[in-house]
Specification:
The chain is α+β, with helices and mostly antiparallel strands and about 475 residues long. Helices cover about 50% and strands about 15% of the residues. Strands 1-2-3-4-12 form a 5-stranded mixed beta sheet, sandwiched between helices. It has a 4-stranded antiparallel beta sheet with strand order 8-9-10-11. It has a 3-stranded antiparallel beta sheet with strand order 5-6-7, with helices on both faces. About 25% of the residues are buried.
């Protein structure tokens, strides 16, 4: 009874071996950049290295891509169907040339298949593939020398394709299509531009940028765009330009599209400059020079970016904006009480009219205060402008713009096993208020683990563009032994 059970196990053992599908065969181009997939170690290291070296030389010489695959089992799948699916999944050969060859060995079916792309059917017709198998490969397979048989067949394939007539024929195949600069620009602009627009729209929505998001009575709020206008201006407009340039028979679509996009965004910025100027004129007409100066200051960063992205004409406009900020800040104004003329005090004289907190802000340069004195009634008006130091915030206690981070200390370093802990101390330079707060530092991530996961993911995938995107019409031949 035990003898029968052992005999049954020996007979059934081959059927228990794992079988592959076209999707689970490890793609050698993704695993180690080679031409040979031998997951069951059928070929042997020496023959595998010699085969891969020959195929590398062949691809370098005339571009032909050959993939050699040796598997224990593909289950009940037909060798032809399996080879066709694997060929298309990997895309062996170059797109347009279809100069690919798949050499597939399936040990449990005792089958060898040479599967050719369209471009190799002339050099390796079915009858030649059959002859290579019968004369060079099958005899070695019958002796159990799978690596030697595959090597002998590859040597013969290489000899045939090295023939000058075949080299010339392969050279006349269509060259692999290369993406033009316009195609690269179009794809990159669509992908990167789309991502940037989504992120910008989400950020602006979350921060109440669009008109109507926040009930704010200020000149700056008047310049905001509605959601519909922003999407039309920054999404639909550029997309329409790219589409039109792609459809028109232009000699240089990249140059035309680049110039059109530059001009389009420059016009959008010019429109925004016009809107700002309208608001500034309204403020100046009402004598609200502080509001006008504040508006110019808040828009300064925007025009700085415009000067970088569109130096013509906004480099000049940027310096004009800086001059206008000084103009509105120092513009003569009328007393709000008696409407008499007011004069701006210098730095030494203005301290008499500033609070101790305001004087501290000037000392820290967190704010810059202007004091205007009415020569008729003695009334004063104080205006606050952003200072050169931006690290200070309003103190939650005294409201002075003198609250800053004094120290940030790591109390416990993070490790691979546990989080760390840190402590921040904020202090007000005016009233002395101190606040200590702690925070957690995330655990460290082992780079080797992350890298291994990435490699494993890549290795397990058998698709992608690791080859050239070639196709096969099912040419070639199969043999059994």
């Amino acid at each position: 009874m035990r003898l029968l059970l052992l005999l049954f196990c020996l007979i059934a053992l081959p059927g228990w071996a794992a079988s592959y599908t076209p999707q689970t065969v490890p793609n050698p181009r993704l695993v180690n950049g080679s031409h040979v997939a031998d997951p069951d170690q059928i070929i042997g290291a020496e023959n595998l290295a010699r085969i891969d070296a020959l195929l590398r030389q062949l691809e370098q010489r005339n571009g032909v891509q050959v993939a050699v695959v040796a598997l224990d089992s593909i289950g009940s799948a037909e060798v032809f169907d399996f080879a066709q699916q694997l060929f298309e999944t990997w895309g062996i050969g170059h797109a347009g040339r279809d100069d690919g060859l798949l050499v597939l060995l399936v040990r449990d079916q005792r089958a060898i298949r040479l599967h050719t792309g369209y471009g190799l059917e002339g050099a390796l017709p079915d009858v030649v593939c059959k002859r290579i198998q019968r004369e060079f490969m099958v005899p070695a397979f019958q002796r159990g020398d799978f690596g030697g048989g595959l090597l002998a067949g590859i040597v013969e394939v290489e000899r045939i394709l090295a023939d000058p007539a075949q080299v010339q024929a392969l050279a006349e195949l269509p060259q692999p299509a290369e993406a033009t600069p316009w195609e690269v620009f179009r794809i990159a602009a669509s992908a990167l531009g789309g991502v940037a627009l989504v992120l910008a729209f989400g950020f602006k929505s979350a921060n109440g940028y669009f008109s109507g998001d926040i009930a704010e009575e200020s000149p700056h709020a008047v310049l905001r765009w509605s959601r519909q206008a922003w999407l039309a201006g920054f999404a639909l407009g550029p997309a329409a330009i790219i589409v039109v340039c792609n459809l028109l028979p232009l000699a240089s679509p990249l140059l035309v599209c680049g110039a059109a996009l530059y001009g389009y965004f420059a016009l959008l910025a010019a429109f925004q400059a016009w809107r700002q100027q309208v608001v500034l004129r309204q403020l100046a007409a009402r004598g609200e020079y502080f509001a006008a100066g504040s508006l110019v200051s808040r828009e300064q960063a925007f025009w700085g970016w415009m000067a970088v992205l569109f130096p013509l004409p906004f480099l000049f406009h940027y310096f004009f904006q800086r001059q206008r900020r000084t103009h509105y800040r120092n513009h003569p104004r009328a007393c709000p009480k008696c409407r008499a003329a007011m004069r701006k005090l210098d730095e030494a004289a203005e301290d008499e009219f500033l609070s101790r907190a305001q004087q501290m802000e000037e000392t820290l340069r967190s704010a810059d205060h202007d004091v205007w004195l009415c020569s008729a009634c003695g009334a004063t008006a104080t205006s606050a402008y952003p200072g050169s130091e931006s690290k200070y915030e309003k103190c939650p206690s005294c409201k002075c713009l003198a609250y800053t981070l004094e120290s940030d200390t790591v109390l416990e370093k993070a490790s691979y096993e546990s989080q760390g802990r840190g402590e921040m101390v904020h202090v007000c330079k005016f009233c002395g208020k101190r606040k200590t707060s702690s925070y957690r530092i995330p655990r460290l991530v082992r780079e080797s683990v992350a890298a291994a996961g990435s490699v494993a993911s890549s290795s397990s995938s058998s698709g992608g563009s690791s080859w050239g995107g070639g196709n096969s019409g099912g040419g070639g031949a199969s043999s059994n032994w």
